[in-house]
Amino acid sequence: MIYLDSAATSFYRPDVVAEEVAEAIRTMGNSSRGAYETALESSRVILEARQLVDELFDGYGPEQTAFTANSTESLNMAIKGILKPGEEAVTTVLEHNSVLRPLYQLEEQGVKVTRVGCLKEEGPGVWENCPDTEPSWKFQKGLLDMDQLHRAIVPGIKAVILTHGSNLTGNIQDIRTVGGWCREAGAVFIVDASQTGGVFPISMKRDQIDILCFTGHKGLMGPQGTGGLCVRKGLEIRPLLSGGSGIKTYSKRHPGEMPTALEAGTLNGHGIAGLKAALMWIKAHGGTEPIRRKEEELARQFYHLVKDIPDIRLYGDYRSYEEEKGRPRAAMVTLNLGDEDSGEVSDWLAREHEIYTRSGGHCAPLMHEALGTREQGAVRFSFSCFNTEEEVQRAAWALEQY
User: Fold this and answer.
1) Which residues contact 234 (CB under 8 A, 6 or more apart)?
2) Strands 379-382 and 332-337, how do they pair?
3) What is the tens place of the pLDDT at every residue in 318-351?
4) DSSP alpha helices (H): ranges in 83-235?
5) Which domains does the chain have, with CATH numbers?
6) 31-55 pLDDT tens trace
């Protein structure tokens, strides 16, 4: 089996993650719900996980990290907790449904949403070093129109919601520049780091991020059912949920202090223990840089092995794979073979070669519309630092056989 769907969820994880989850099930009670050893152990583990998240993302203190079940919950909390009817938000066509659908709901309630599109691509040469003989349909870069985004971020905009890395093309957005635009305009900058957390360096302070939403089960290599959001100090988010908190039992209102304000009910302490172990593993192995370099090299090798397959169509900006300069990209290669249905290709790879990829719409409908792949979908190969060069070569060979 060759697993090449790490953009959906990490299948390969450090062994210590499973070990820590098992140990937590045996030893941890309910955090903040008792003063005895098992409850205190749970509180300690969760606090240590907060500290590691805060360190990784250069946040505003561990108490500003609230844990959730996934990025979807985090993004819903951020978007619905900031925006009110009559206010305006800016987002892009790159976004996952975890951003799009909450905003569609809010539009029905009177929030105005501007969606920034991609640069239009015309002519046979889609980048400088592509030969003029290259057919114009072979590459679709799917680059965000940064000028249009800049023009949209004006005073009066309440929030800007942007994915750091597209889950379809792998393109990385310049969040530091966008963060500066948001700060100048007085807009709350919400970043979806689902595809980049644990792999790319992120600094909430330098990038001027107000809310960073992350999931634990992708690049962070933790268990499913873990995620969170890191919030700039002084920024208040209306809670999506209210209920038990372990403190202020007799108050009719849910506590407003972070992180309790965004953590109603029992946390997934066992999962967070596994996430803590994954964060410690990343830190012990040199942080995000060696992980990113390894994954990038595997994706680069795969790209060069498949780019000349007859009738192949590639989606994303691969200039950094063709030359040293160019924006970094997430470790994925997304493609189609002529007009073949993406689901058929992906199913064939799984059935005939036990190569597991993601096909279809990838929960990114507006990006597929921008690329012209609404009906066909696309096949996404996404790489982990635990994949090998041999697996890359076998996957490329298999694709050639289709």
Assistant:
1) none
2) antiparallel
3) 999 987 667 899 999 999 999 999 999 999 999 9
4) 97-108, 146-152, 175-185
5) 2-12+287-401 (3.90.1150.10), 15-117+144-284 (3.40.640.10)
6) 767 677 777 788 899 999 999 999 9
